[in-house]
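Chain A, query sequence.
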Amino acid sequence: MTPYQQGGETEKIAITSFDGCTLVASRFGRAVNGAIIFSPGGGQTRHAWSGAALAFARKGFFVLCADLRGHGDSDRAPDGTYSYHDYARDALVLSDWVESQTGTKPHFIGASLGGVAALVAAGRVRQDGFASLTLVDVAPKISEHGFGSIRNFMLDTAKNGFANVSEAAAFLSKHFPRPGADNRSSGGSGGLRKNLRLGEDGRWRWHWDPAFVETLYLEPDEFERELTEAAKNLIIPVHFMRAGNSELVTQEAAAHFRDIAPHIHFTEITGAKHMVTGDQNDMFVEAALNYLVSPELHRTPLDN
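Chain A, predicted structure.
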């Protein structure tokens, strides 16, 4: 039994990826019932998963939450270029690291970009890289309007930044109004401050590299082709979770995904928008956990 199976304390970890890029992660819990990797969406940090990570750790899982390359505390891409395949290879590096430390292949739970990375990894790079895959509001076909809106939002102020944290909070509240958002985003709480960096010019900017938006979010048609091919190649158990009020993954997109990969397990999270864990975290945790402990998890397309 390794130290990671015995120790339950949270720890900050640095893992070197395939091209020398350092990925920073936090670990939780012990590998009593298995291991899980949580991967956030574009524009988020690993801290977006903290609540879910603690919930799964209490259920006996070792949990690793990692910042995507170009985000949070992780390194930016060495050449300033980002691709879905690079994110996919990062996901597999994290999986290999967890397996080497715990002795068990981890389940992978990815939201938005984190889910895209895992889908490409499991369908295009290495089919058996994870024990299972849970995709949170991720599907091969997405709304082009939603795709463009997210890109525009992320580019807006990415380079110019904000005069202070309060200005950033007001900007975020305007674009993503939520009950209680002002409290969560205040500079005093430290919540929003984790997502910002103070530049040498005294202005606050998002924690991610603007180049990831400029080089990654370009062609929705290419995105759909890539992910459709990946979905057709899936051989591991897959749980597809759609946000009921998603701006990105429509009901039509969900039906398309289920048609090309009929073995996947489907859950709809009522009342949630694209960032499911921020809107309905308790419902997400319950649905994800129920799947991980279900007999269905141990069946693959080859068994059907």
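The CA atoms of residues 81 and 215 lie 6 Å apart. The first helix runs from residue 3 to 6.
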